[in-house]
Design goal:
The complex is a heterodimer of chains A (about 170) and B (about 240). Chain A is mainly α and about 170 residues long. Chain A contains 6 helices and no strands. In chain B, strand 6 (about 150-155) and strand 7 (about 165-170) form a beta hairpin. Classes of the chains: A mainly alpha (about 170), B alpha+beta (about 240).
Chain lengths: ~170, ~240
Amino acid sequence: MIRPFLGIFFFLLLASMEVGFVYALPFPIDRTPLVLVVSVFIFQSMDIRPSVWWVAVHGLVIDLLHISFVSFEFISYTIASVALILCSRHLFSNRSFWGILGTFTISLLTLTLAEIFFAIVGILEKSYALSLHDLLLVRAWSWALGSIVLLFLFPLHEFFVRMKIKLFAS
Amino acid sequence: MLSVFILMFLLALYFFQGLVTDLLSPFMRFFSEVGTAASVALSTEQDLFLQTQVQALAINAVEFDRLKTENETLREELGFLERTGFSAIGASILSKSLSQTVARFVLDVGEHQGVQVGDPVVAQNGLFVGKIFTVERNTSTAVALTDPTHTTAVSLINDRRTIGVAYCTVGGLLEIRFIPTDETIKINDLVVTSGLEETVPSCLLIGQVKGVEIDQNTLFQKSMLEPLQDIRHLAHVLVLIDESL
């Protein structure tokens, strides 16, 4: 019973850390997709399924705060979460770092494509200029920084799993 | 079962938008202040010192020009806030989203505090940083000067008080386009708000001219301007409220 509330609390903490702390840091560190990368890791490596919803709800939070350059981030993030599920279930291993990195890469790519689609719709509607080069540069940094976060998360998780096994063995 | 629960949760979140921001506000305020402190700490001491010096000099210059103009033409009128009917509300920045594609920040004041769409947002030293874009019950989102989807009506502090519209370009710079070539623009000319936008008063300092480009094929020139205030270094701002509305 307590697990859903723990999940909600952890999501609130993670989302606040991303939009409050990470976004306040200098560029490009502020483009670290903390919620997406942690959700991918928890979903694929630890098999905690509700974490996939964090991705969609994070899109909703961004929409409600109006801090994105495109509208309908909820839909973009939901599409990314569908890509996350498909990749982790049918495409990549949940045991290797490369598998998790692959899922993260495809999720981020799907998110970017969905955002580009909504950006084009927005540009047609409001007629403002948005550089595709800038958007891709920002997402390239997101990918690089997300991968660095994974580089820390993966061995950390492995270490705790080994410690747990050792404790039970002794 | 879980999916239905989550779907209901999402619908509830959507229909009670204020709830989300109210829930996140305490966490975001804490993390945002820590992030801003980290951002300042990552800047070199010399950078911060020079930036403060430039800001102080620019503020003095604009203030001097404004006072001079006021003395000449509006001697009987009072200070800026009284003259325009604006008053200020202090606000903390809850979140910043600043990159090449977006430049917005979330404030902890909203409809309940009297904030309205279009209200100007200034740093505590009076430098113009953006405008209110959307307003919720207790929070609001502002677009910064460097947001690619928004423009600002500006005026240069030169002999002819050149007016124009500033657009965001690369590297956090702004560009004033379609300035007739007979207007004289010099590097380091100061740029302020022109007052042509309904809710934004005139003479709020924005930045300095950093480059002028004359197009030989047309009768226009354009100038690049650098905003004087880096929003990454701000944790608190003022929202100017027009009490006459």
